[in-house]
């Protein structure tokens, strides 16, 4: 028996990873399984809500009784979410937006129209080039002016094995100059839009809930993230290895402070969260 705490509430959610194409057969994604988001969609529906789930690619069955809108990229996810909110603005408004998706922070600046060839790291149409000499990077030259991140500039690192920016302070950082091994392919990345923050910024923003997975100092990051994104409630995933797992430990962060929930299955936690939402949403 599930109390119908969300009876008649309209809930829009995102879940799963996003997939950012590099070429027609390859892309960048992450290890999000979609389990937490799908469990929450199901739990909200069982609590009486009308749920629309905008989902990146997952291996999970569609939750029963939930309107399901599949997408691939972060941009498609944003467009779909915004279209839903725009549509609701002229009909029945949405009460709550829950961003559970692990949205890719970066996407390739250019998507090659043909499979990138190993021989030269060149797309057939020449859009992405190898870093064979570190100079002629057609794909990277147009990376946003003022872009201060290192993504897409990995080619310039001398003989390094990792371009992820985890090098200790003082170690050689990637730069645009330097030599590049001949077998290097450089991929320029550009930042994806923040879907949750975009929803929260709307004048007609529903009650917004975010999720955060952090590998360290969750309390601090989650508190800061809630404020930066301009949302009333943020749910933190405690522990680094929650992706793909059935169990989770959650931390709730709101304007009053933080509260840790006892560890449980994603299904049990989703049920608890749905009831909590019912208490928080305006009547
Ligand atoms: O900033 P971070 O990715 O850690 O924030 C996580 C929260 O923000 C999640 O709720 C996620 O769904 C949402 N998010 C988003 N669009 C992004 C990045 C994150 O909606 N581009």
Automatic annotation (TrEMBL):
<keyword id="KW-0436">Ligase</keyword>
<keyword id="KW-0210">Decarboxylase</keyword>
<feature type="binding site">
    <location>
        <position position="229"/>
    </location>
    <ligand>
        <name>CTP</name>
    </ligand>
</feature>
<dbReference type="GO" id="GO:0071513">
    <property type="term" value="C:phosphopantothenoylcysteine decarboxylase complex"/>
</dbReference>
<comment type="function">
    <text>Catalyzes two steps in the biosynthesis of coenzyme A. In the first step cysteine is conjugated to 4'-phosphopantothenate to form 4-phosphopantothenoylcysteine, in the latter compound is decarboxylated to form 4'-phosphopantotheine.</text>
</comment>
<feature type="binding site">
    <location>
        <position position="211"/>
    </location>
    <ligand>
        <name>CTP</name>
    </ligand>
</feature>
<dbReference type="GO" id="GO:0015937">
    <property type="term" value="P:coenzyme A biosynthetic process"/>
</dbReference>
<feature type="binding site">
    <location>
        <begin position="193"/>
        <end position="196"/>
    </location>
    <ligand>
        <name>CTP</name>
    </ligand>
</feature>
<keyword id="KW-0460">Magnesium</keyword>
<feature type="domain" description="DNA/pantothenate metabolism flavoprotein C-terminal">
    <location>
        <begin position="6"/>
        <end position="121"/>
    </location>
</feature>
<dbReference type="GO" id="GO:0004632">
    <property type="term" value="F:phosphopantothenate--cysteine ligase activity"/>
</dbReference>
<feature type="region of interest" description="Disordered">
    <location>
        <begin position="151"/>
        <end position="176"/>
    </location>
</feature>
<keyword id="KW-0511">Multifunctional enzyme</keyword>
<keyword id="KW-0456">Lyase</keyword>
<feature type="region of interest" description="Phosphopantothenate--cysteine ligase">
    <location>
        <begin position="11"/>
        <end position="283"/>
    </location>
</feature>
<dbReference type="GO" id="GO:0046872">
    <property type="term" value="F:metal ion binding"/>
</dbReference>
<dbReference type="GO" id="GO:0015941">
    <property type="term" value="P:pantothenate catabolic process"/>
</dbReference>
<comment type="function">
    <text>Catalyzes two sequential steps in the biosynthesis of coenzyme A. In the first step cysteine is conjugated to 4'-phosphopantothenate to form 4-phosphopantothenoylcysteine. In the second step the latter compound is decarboxylated to form 4'-phosphopantotheine.</text>
</comment>
<dbReference type="GO" id="GO:0004633">
    <property type="term" value="F:phosphopantothenoylcysteine decarboxylase activity"/>
</dbReference>
<feature type="binding site">
    <location>
        <position position="105"/>
    </location>
    <ligand>
        <name>CTP</name>
    </ligand>
</feature>
<feature type="domain" description="DNA/pantothenate metabolism flavoprotein C-terminal">
    <location>
        <begin position="183"/>
        <end position="277"/>
    </location>
</feature>
<keyword id="KW-0288">FMN</keyword>
<feature type="binding site">
    <location>
        <position position="225"/>
    </location>
    <ligand>
        <name>CTP</name>
    </ligand>
</feature>
<comment type="pathway">
    <text>Cofactor biosynthesis; coenzyme A biosynthesis; CoA from (R)-pantothenate: step 2/5.</text>
</comment>
<comment type="similarity">
    <text>In the N-terminal section; belongs to the HFCD (homo-oligomeric flavin containing Cys decarboxylase) superfamily.</text>
</comment>
<protein>
    <recommendedName>
        <fullName>Coenzyme A biosynthesis bifunctional protein CoaBC</fullName>
        <ecNumber>4.1.1.36</ecNumber>
        <ecNumber>6.3.2.5</ecNumber>
    </recommendedName>
</protein>
<feature type="binding site">
    <location>
        <position position="115"/>
    </location>
    <ligand>
        <name>CTP</name>
    </ligand>
</feature>
<comment type="pathway">
    <text>Cofactor biosynthesis; coenzyme A biosynthesis; CoA from (R)-pantothenate: step 3/5.</text>
</comment>
<comment type="similarity">
    <text>In the C-terminal section; belongs to the PPC synthetase family.</text>
</comment>
<keyword id="KW-0479">Metal-binding</keyword>
<dbReference type="GO" id="GO:0010181">
    <property type="term" value="F:FMN binding"/>
</dbReference>
<keyword id="KW-0285">Flavoprotein</keyword>
